[in-house]
Amino acid sequence: MFCSVLSAAIYGVDSVKIQVEADVSDGMPQFVMVGSVSTQVKEGQDRVKTALRNVGVVLPPKRVTISLVPADIRKDGSRFDLPVAVAFLRSIGRIPPRALEDAMVIGEVRLNGGIQGVTGVLSTVLLARELGCRRCVIPRDNIIEGKIVDGIQVIGMESLDQLIQYCCDEGSFRENPEVKVEPEEDYDVDFQDILGQEYVKRAALIAACGFHNLLLRGGPGSGKSMVAKRIPSIMPELTKEESLELSKIYSVAGLLPEGTPILRRRPFRQPHHTISPQALAGGGRIPVPGEITLAHHGVLFLDEMAEASRQTIEILRQPLEERQIVISRTGGRFLFPANFMLVGAINSCPCGYYPDLNRCTCTIQEMIRYLNKISLPLLDRMDLCVEVPALSYEELTGDGRQGESSRDLRKIVSRVHQFQRERYGEGIQGKKGIVRYNSELSTREIEEFCPITRDGQKLLKQAFQTYGMTARGYHRIIKVARTIADMGESDTIHTEHISEAICYRSLDKNIWKRI
Fold this sequence. Notes:
Elements: E1 2-11, E2 14-25, E3 30-34, H1 39-54, E4 63-69, H2 81-91, E5 103-105, E6 108-109, E7 115-116, H3 121-130, E8 135-139, H4 143-146, E9 153-157, H5 160-168, H6 198-210, E10 214-218, H7 224-230, H8 240-253, E11 268-269, H9 277-281, E12 282-283, E13 288-289, H10 291-294, E14 299-302, H11 310-314, H12 317-322, E15 324-329, E16 332-337, E17 341-346, H13 364-371, H14 376-379, E18 384-388, H15 393-397, H16 406-424, E19 428-430, E20 433-435, H17 443-449, H18 454-467, H19 471-487, H20 495-503, H21 509-512
Parallel strand pairs: 3-4, 5-8, 8-9, 10-17, 10-18, 11-14, 14-17
Antiparallel strand pairs: 1-2, 2-4, 6-7, 12-13, 15-16, 19-20
């Protein structure tokens, strides 16, 4: 007897429809799985047969053929155990022939008949809803994650016994309780912890308001990492659409925190400078999300940026422009989203003490070699570059004054983000995706949304000629000026906005050399 069960495979960060077909016929007893399946999927036949025996299902001495369609998509992982079991049970008549006909099924089966959780559940449930399925059967371990999706019934199963009982008598199944998402606690860090450094905090605020890239340069212990780690605390929560998109990525990667079905905070990723190019961008035989994709809609902080390998750092150039990463393999083309805010931290020299000549021991050649580890094309993609000076004794000991808290700064960022949402609506569709922030504007959109006064244009022209800017540097100054104008609630970009934006790109010619 032939039957078919709907399931899904993970392809990049999305799920694709897979039909699990089963046929039980006369012939030499054997269990065959076909359809471009990996070793992990093939191992599932032994798990399924053993689990069915252990729950009292008698396996007929017949030829069993399992086909996963379409055959040109590579299937990997253990998520097909449960749909294979359902298809087999329907084929031998152990459950009704039309059972779970309107459902998508995923899950791993244990040898004792239990059903184990899998990754990528959120992506699968979203696909099931998109395809018009009435139900989605998943492991009970993943029920919190699956229930977050509205518009579809999500059923969590603990064992094959429970599944068989449900298929034979749906009325006997006790519905899983509704999921309650607890509000997250406030951040452990606060901008009030930073003493002095007002200019640096201003740059960080501008970067958060417009989602601009930020480069921090300073000696050891000057506070670069301290500022970077507090940037997420001044950024508003993810929108519902952003939250689902990010949670889907973390679900596929198996990194959703236990008991947290959906992410509401923007991610902060801080990989070590010894990270490999593949770990940063994503990849592998079957590509998985890398640190760049895990920082989607959030902050990617690269401390000691100049200490990372040149090959690793240069990988950032394309995703910073395209806001996505495309990885091609013989098995297909995988697209990973990469709309992140890059925050980099570097020292002035290998020892870190320049320009303190009493402590710096580096030669000019060593300094040039050190700074040249970061190419000019990559530096050109940094919207703001600020010097982080060492604190004085008076600033370090404090005088009783405290700066604005992260909560107060978050209100400013939320207000500026609201301005941008009102300007761009739900997001204007550009060549590189949906535009929601000033940093994402294309050349044509800059002309439409960034009106500059005549005096501002004169200043911009003078800076362009004086500093020898590239076209990219020129447009990035306008984008930063647009954000500064939004912070001042100005529809038009004035001279003071242009002037401040220029300062953030021409602060240190030893690093920028040319813009």
